[in-house]
Amino acid sequence: MARIKPFKGVRPPRHLVEEVASRPYDVLNSEEARAEAEGNLKSLYHIIKPEIDFEIGFDEHHPDVYDKAVENFKKFQDNGWLVQDEKENYYIYAQTMNGRTQYGFVVGAWVPDYMEGRIKKHELTRRDKEEDRMKHVRCNNANIEPVFFAFPDNEVLEKIIKDVTAGEPEYDFIAPDGFGHTLWVIEDDNTIETVTKEFEKIPNLYIADGHHRSAAAALVGAEKAKQNPNHTGDEEYNYFMAVAFPASHLNIIDYNRVVKDLNGLTPEEFLKRLEENFVVEEKGTEIYRPNALHNFSLYLDGKWYSLTAKHGTFDDSDPIGVLDVTVSSDLILRDILGITDLRSDKRIDFVGGIRGLEELQKRVDSGEMKMALALYPVTMDQLINIADTGNIMPPKTTWFEPKLRSGLVIHKLD
Question: Distance between CA 377 and CA 82 in Å, rounded?
Answer without folding.
Answer: 38
